[in-house]
Amino acid sequence: MSKENSKLTRIRMKITFLGTGTSMGVPVIGCECEVCRSSNEKDKRLRTSIAIEVDGQTWVVDTGPDFRQQMLRAGIVNLDAVLFTHEHKDHTAGLDDIRAYNHSTEKDLPIYANIATQHALKMSFPYAFPTENRYPGAPSIVAHTIYADTPFEVNGVGVVPIEVIHGKMPVLGFRVGDFTYITDAKTITLAEINKIRGSKVVVFNTLKKTSHWSHLTLEEGLELVEELKPERAYFTHLSHRMGLHEEIQAELPKNVFLAYDGLVLEI
Length: 267
Description:
The protein is α/β, with parallel strands linked by helices. The protein is about 20% helix and about 25% strand.
């Protein structure tokens, strides 16, 4: 483990999986497959997002279309920051609903995003950014620009960004202490993999078993786990084409798990 990464360990965290599905969620509208018809709650997946509770703070990674529902379901009353992985709508479309937190705190909500994601947010939610004639009751954010090669802090807690490639798009994952969260990855360079090394718990997106041009498959996710050898690994951003939760889980190594909505980890 690098000296930089060793400084990040020994941070206690609680991770809640707010959503573990793909851009269409599970069940998919109009689909009659066995996964979409399953009565198992672990087969019902909102769009991918997590909450991180650390050092008395609560952060959310991405505000997808299900953001409001996720906050209510998880009972998240206080929100201190949002970290964005990238600009796709299944990770940003719920930003408007942060205004409930603006109203309760009477403060702007800090967001952390790269330049491309900020540009996309400004196109979709121009009224959420500082303006001279802000509409009363509109969401209110203060944006912090982050870069793939530069660690940053959120209210004193260190975060290491990890750049992965989603098709041809750069996407950010994040390492906090012994925890690394990666979503919407297809390829990861050795330099970025080295940032992950030493993490006790890792999360990767694994869309399905068969090949996909912009997401890791189940086999590719398992190969990364074998390379990194974390204590525990969790797979998220799962499509209905992955298969039934219980059947796939039974096939996995003992330290690898399919994440599901509502799963809570203590790290």
